[in-house]
Amino acid sequence: MIRVAILFGGRSSEHSISCATAGGVLSAIDRSRYEVILIGITRDGAWTLQEASTVSGFSLGREAAALPLVADNGTRVRLPESAATREFTVSSADGTLSSLGDVDVAFPILHGPFGEDGTIQGALELVGLPYVGSGVLASALGMDKHFTKTVLEGAGVPVAPWVTVTRAELAENHDLWQRRMQGIDLPVFVKPARAGSSVGVSKVTAWDQLETALDTAFAEDHRVLVEAAIAGREVECGVLQGRNGAPPRVSLAGEIVITGREFYDFDAKYLDAPGVELVCPSPLREQELAELQRIAARSFEAIGGAGLARVDFFFTGSEFIVNEINTMPGFTPISMFPACWLASGMSYPELIDELITLGLATAR
Length: 364
Hints:
By secondary structure, the chain is of the alpha+beta class. The chain contains twelve helices and 16 strands. The model has no long low-confidence stretch (mean pLDDT 91).
């Protein structure tokens, strides 16, 4: 039996989304094939051993107060001491140390900083443990919207015009940066460089809204993007690493249809707020889908992706413009990534199995 350590929670603002994903994965993973060790990382960064009965109940409620989180139960899980062993250990609340046995592969279903940005990936590589998903560099690139766009633009992938600014730069020469930001036609989106799930994102339709939007984004990161809003359909697709050196595989597309909101924000994604409809598969023509899949695969290869990713686009009717690439996308059973693969013929349990297989086979 393959032993899988599922890492979830974490220190980012997407802590609860990760918890909900853990609940979904635990409910779908083939327990006859995989033995699961549940490692919940608290908001303070403590690695704790969690019970299946707790994690299986994690889900996203309709209100932020109902969002799940990792409770600190006093246990502390330790990584293997070196690459010579794959043994995890745990100390109980009273300090008693015991072995969790060897782990074959880690499944870090962590979103945002300190999980999706290469930090966890680096820790796992230090002890030689195989894991699901992209490596250190691709994870760091995919997490940082500025560098994602820089790399994709260099690879010939179309991206929206943008300006990146830090708090320090803005304080040093406010007028200069104001002119640069206002050189982009309204409306614009203001985003933290390193955050996901639309946390800290604002749509600006008049320049007198800019300062408030910047403050909201700076609360999440010290670097912020001001990016042109692209008029068009919002479409997304899933990417899976090819096996044995084969090209990446790309799913059918899903589409986000905005009916009564400014944009696809956190509440619409996770709290079932009205005004958004998810359509999967998207009614793209055959040639349009082929072009989307080509650009998605190119984007995945450009950042050196492994395992999985979701690529988000704006479709103007004549061109697909990449909005961002997520190396550990929302992975709850109803998230767009598994929905796209379900529409493409791969069930949620099959998708989990494929990702673990890829993680075990990927050389780091």
